[in-house]
Specification:
By secondary structure, the protein is mainly alpha-helical. The protein has two domains: 146 residues, no CATH class; 121 residues, Tetracycline Repressor, domain 2 (Orthogonal Bundle). Helix content is 50%, strand content 3%. The strands form two sheets. A two-stranded antiparallel ribbon has the order 1-2.
Length: 285
């Protein structure tokens, strides 16, 4: 499976405090998670830290008990408040925070690809990530919260391509299709997770998060475009209408083996309202 570059519709939830994961971590499902671990000296509280690569001296505050190999952050990745708090005086990001964030994200993607997220315990997730449960609860409240954060961040990356494409003078119709295709690519990368969440009523939170993501994106899209072209109706209702429709098209694609990704894209583009193209134009009012 291709590397997952965690982007498309919505925002990443932030929970203040230490260790908030950045929204740009890379996750590669299926990569080894147990090998190559080197444990460093324990801190004053008697807890050890762990990392891959050279042995370093670590403070005990992160609660790591074992380690795993994870992808390095992309250049220019956005720093979360917790990463800023964990930085050294010279301004460098504390590498323990990045490793722990990536370990959690890698673990939840792997586990949620195997079975519904509602069946994943915090203990199992922490064990797969190679950290303590206390470290998990310092950052998240449930495995679902972590999973939604990963999915939202992957969707957001796709959205950030829109401005670049607009500068290349693509037509509004081309931009609409390219943006829709990015969503299809996202769902394809996390296909196993979405399929499992749609089949189990206990996992409706994943689908609801997808709808919420699309709704928030729609509101932002309407606000930045040519308002003179927008319909005279409640924006919140419009956003919900479009979000549920798009999410429904994805659901139909995932549930029916005869439906292809291109079928979903064609249907979504064909059903987009005529005024949507105004969102790609400079704002006039």
């Amino acid at each position: 499976m291709d590397d997952l570059r965690i982007p498309l519709f919505g925002t990443t939830n932030e929970r203040g405090g230490e260790g908030q994961p950045p929204d740009s971590a890379a996750v590669t499902p299926g990569s080894p998670v147990r090998g190559g671990v080197q444990t460093v000296a324990a801190g004053p509280a008697g807890r050890g830290d762990a990392c891959t690569g050279p042995v370093v001296t670590a403070m005990p505050q992160d609660g790591l008990s074992t380690g795993r190999r994870t992808a390095l952050p992309e250049p220019g990745a956005t720093r979360s408040p917790a990463e800023q708090e964990g930085s050294t005086l010279s301004g460098r990001i504390d590498p323990r925070i990045t490793r722990t964030t990536q370990a959690f994200e890698q673990a939840i993607v792997e586990l949620a690809s195997e079975r519904p997220v509602s069946q994943i315990s915090v203990a199992e997730l922490a064990d797969r990530a190679g950290v303590t449960r206390a470290t998990f609860y310092n950052r998240y409240s449930t495995p679902l919260e972590l999973l939604i954060q990963v999915l939202d961040a992957d969707l957001d990356r796709g959205h950030r391509l829109e401005d670049e494409r607009a500068r290349r003078r693509h037509s509004a119709a081309e931009l609409l299709r390219l943006t829709t295709a990015e969503v299809g690519n996202h769902v394809e990368r996390f296909r196993a997770i979405y399929r499992l969440s749609l089949d189990d009523p206990a996992d409706s939170g994943v689908y609801e998060a997808l709808v919420r993501h699309f709704s928030e994106y729609t509101l932002a899209f309407m606000a930045r475009g040519d308002r003179s072209a927008l319909p005279d109706a409640n924006p919140q209702v419009i956003a919900q209408f479009l979000a549920h429709g798009f999410a429904g098209a994805i659901k139909a694609w995932l549930h029916d083996p005869s439906v292809t990704k291109d079928d979903m894209i064609d249907a979504a583009v064909a059903c987009a309202p005529a005024w949507w193209a105004s969102g790609y134009l400079p704002r006039t009012s």
